[in-house]
């Protein structure tokens, strides 16, 4: 008998549009011979099942069930493809834990920690061969904090919302005069802001996931952007960025990155598919951690999809492995 899977998408942030695109790809590629898929849209104050004819049916939050045409349907598990809040920051995971529903992504604690870039760096900073840029984590947009940034960090640096995604609200600052505007932009998106010194290096992103207790590290993708950094436009506008999979690394670099990526996955107690972004510093080839995404995009051209195909696996096979793992 086929298992019933709720494909959870939408969200409370600007990343909702990306989440809906990811869900459409998952829906198209999932093995319908194994699973019955129900797309659940989560918006603020409005959780509903969207059927193939665009009909809306409310979700009963007591048990996350739906009742289209009067027939109650409960789920065997959740395929979480909701980027940002509440799907990536632990809120949704905590709810599913309370009602006893398994899901494909990290648990509530790991999700909430990894959504916070500053806290994540504090946990993984002592992993061998992994470096973190010098940074400041700010909790208020005050003149004294602006001065701290100017006094304590070396230009240039990146200013970014501490819990944001898709590079929304992010700026590269080159002069002291640009600091306040960048902080205002980041604080408009989040109550915490991370300011990091710039690392001169090549940018990569690498996916990993666990099956039967073993971490699979996928080939890394090299990000070559025509813009100064990999911002929202570069991520989601065709032609702005070149993505090379596998990325151009030496055998030694590949082996070193693979070892580090696995350690990051295990130290953060990740589950399902995650993606780590990092720099290889020019001259030294040191690995510098950027961030980790616990609900990475699954659009047609997403980095994870490229990396899965690079190892000769179909996206459908990959989704099946991710789904089956949540019941183990």
UniProtKB/TrEMBL annotation:
Pathway: Cell wall biogenesis; peptidoglycan biosynthesis
Keyword field: ATP-binding, Cell shape, Cell wall biogenesis/degradation, Cytoplasm, Ligase, Nucleotide-binding, Peptidoglycan synthesis
Family: Belongs to the D-alanine--D-alanine ligase family.
Keyword Cytoplasm recorded: yes
Protein purpose: Cell wall formation.
Native species: Echinicola arenosa
Top EC class, one word: ligase
Residues annotated as domain ATP-grasp: 124-324
GO molecular function, one term: D-alanine-D-alanine ligase activity
Enzyme Commission number(s) from the entry: 6.3.2.4
Cellular localisation: Cytoplasm
Protein's recorded name: D-alanine--D-alanine ligase
InterPro entries the record matches: ATP-grasp, ATP_grasp_subdomain_1, D-Ala_lig_Van_CS, D_ala_D_ala, Dala_Dala_lig_C, Dala_Dala_lig_N, PreATP-grasp_dom_sf
Reactions catalysed, as given in the entry: 2 D-alanine + ATP = D-alanyl-D-alanine + ADP + phosphate + H(+)
Domain of life of the native organism: Bacteria
């Amino acid at each position: 008998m086929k298992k019933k899977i709720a494909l959870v998408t939408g969200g409370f942030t600007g990343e909702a549009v990306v989440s809906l695109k990811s869900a459409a790809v998952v829906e198209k590629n999932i093995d319908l011979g194994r699973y019955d898929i129900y797309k659940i849209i989560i918006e603020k104050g409005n959780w509903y099942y969207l059927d193939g004819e665009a009909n809306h049916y409310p979700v009963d939050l007591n048990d996350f069930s739906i009742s289209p045409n009067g027939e109650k349907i409960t789920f065997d598990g959740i395929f979480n493809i909701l980027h940002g809040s509440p799907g990536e920051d632990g809120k949704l995971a905590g709810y599913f834990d309370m009602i006893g529903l398994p899901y494909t992504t990290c648990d509530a604690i790991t999700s909430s920690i990894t959504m916070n870039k500053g806290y994540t760096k504090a946990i993984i900073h002592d992993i061998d061969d992994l470096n973190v840029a010098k940074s400041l984590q700010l909790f208020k947009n005050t003149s004294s904090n602006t001065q701290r940034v100017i006094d304590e960090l070396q230009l240039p640096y990146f200013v970014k919302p501490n819990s944001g995604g898709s590079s929304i609200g992010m700026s590269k600052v080159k002069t002291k005069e640009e600091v306040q505007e960048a902080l205002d932009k980041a604080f408009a998106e989040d109550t915490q802001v991370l300011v990091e010194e710039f690392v001169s290096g090549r940018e990569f992103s690498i996916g990993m996931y666990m099956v039967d207790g073993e971490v699979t590290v996928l080939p890394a993708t090299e990000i070559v952007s025509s813009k100064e950094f990999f911002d929202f436009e570069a991520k989601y506008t065709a032609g702005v960025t070149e993505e090379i999979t596998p990325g151009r690394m030496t055998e030694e670099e590949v082996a070193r990155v693979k070892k580090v990526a696995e350690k990051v996955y295990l130290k953060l107690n990740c589950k399902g598919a995650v993606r780590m972004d990092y720099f290889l510093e020019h001259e030294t080839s040191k690995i510098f951690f950027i961030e980790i995404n616990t609900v990475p995009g699954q659009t047609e051209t997403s980095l994870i999809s490229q990396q899965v195909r690079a190892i000769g696996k179909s996206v459908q096979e990959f989704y099946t492995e991710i789904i089956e793992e949540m019941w183990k």
